[in-house]
Design goal:
The chain is 77% helix and 0% strand.
C-alpha cells in the first residue's frame, strides 16, 4: 500500500475532534504509567542506596515496575493518536489494576487511600474505554459490523 492510500483515512479521522472521553481515558492511562515509573524508580533507588532485606529483589521489583509502565504509557499515546489497537492494552491495564486496588484496600495501613484512588481511576478508565463514543472515535466496529 502506498503512503497516499494510508494517509487519506487518517486525515479524515483527524478532521473530527477527539471526544473528551477518549482524551480523559488517555490521561488516566498516562497517570497510571507515570505512577508505575515513579514507584519503580523509587524502589530501585531504595534498593541500590538503602539497606533492603534483599537487594536483588528490590532491584528486580523496581525494574519490573518501570517495564510494566510501558503498557499504559504506550496505550495512552495510542489513544491520543486515535489508534484502534490502543484500547486493548488500556483495558488490560485497568483490569490488572483492579486486583491490586483490592489488595491495597485489604491492607491495614496507609495503603488504603492508594487502593481507593487506584480503584476509582481503574473503574473510571474502563467506563471511558468501553463508551460508544470512544469506540467510534477509535474506529472499532465490533463483531459482525465489518464493512
Amino acid at each position: 500500500m502506498s503512503s497516499e492510500q494510508k494517509s487519506a483515512p487518517e486525515t479524515a479521522e483527524a478532521a473530527e475532534p477527539r471526544p473528551r472521553r477518549l482524551t480523559y481515558a488517555a490521561v488516566l492511562a498516562a497517570l497510571e504509567g507515570a505512577a508505575l515509573v515513579i514507584g519503580g524508580v523509587w524502589i530501585l533507588v531504595l534498593g541500590l542506596t538503602g539497606d533492603p532485606d534483599d537487594r536483588q529483589q528490590a532491584v528486580t521489583g523496581g525494574i519490573t515496575l518501570v517495564v510494566l509502565a510501558l503498557l499504559p504509557l504506550l496505550a495512552a499515546r495510542g489513544l491520543l493518536l486515535r489508534r484502534s489497537w490502543s484500547r486493548g492494552p488500556a483495558v488490560i491495564t485497568q483490569i490488572m489494576a483492579l486486583p491490586v486496588a483490592y489488595n491495597l484496600l485489604k491492607a491495614d495501613s496507609m495503603a488504603i487511600p492508594s487502593g481507593i484512588a487506584l480503584a476509582v481511576v481503574a473503574v473510571a478508565a474502563l467506563v471511558l474505554l468501553v463508551n460508544p463514543a470512544t469506540t467510534q472515535a477509535l474506529g472499532i466496529k465490533g463483531p459482525g459490523r465489518a464493512e
